[in-house]
Write a structure and sequence with these properties.
This protein has 70 residues and is an all-alpha fold. The chain has 2 helices and no strands. Helix content is 87%, strand content 0%.
Length: 70
C-alpha cells in the first residue's frame, strides 16, 4: 500500500473514532443530566484518542523490542 493511501486510511480511522467517542460523551452527559457542549466533548475525545494512540505505539514498540532481544 502506498504511503498516501496508508495515511488516508489512518486519518479516516481516527476521524471515525473521534466521532464515536464524541457521541458517547455527549450521550453520557445527557444521560447523567450534566450540561455538556459538543465542542467540549469533541476536545475531550481528541485527548482520549491521543492518549490511547500514544499508549498503543509504546506497547507495540516495547513488544517489538522484547521480541528482538529474546
Amino acid at each position: 500500500m502506498s504511503g498516501i493511501r496508508s495515511w488516508r486510511r489512518q486519518a479516516r480511522s481516527l476521524l471515525v473514532w473521534w466521532a464515536l467517542v464524541t457521541l458517547v460523551l455527549v450521550l453520557l452527559g445527557a444521560a447523567l443530566g450534566r450540561p455538556v457542549t459538543l465542542v467540549g466533548c469533541g476536545a475531550s475525545a481528541v485527548l482520549l484518542i491521543a492518549v490511547g494512540e500514544v499508549g498503543n505505539g509504546l506497547r507495540q514498540r516495547l513488544r517489538h523490542k522484547a521480541r528482538r532481544a529474546g
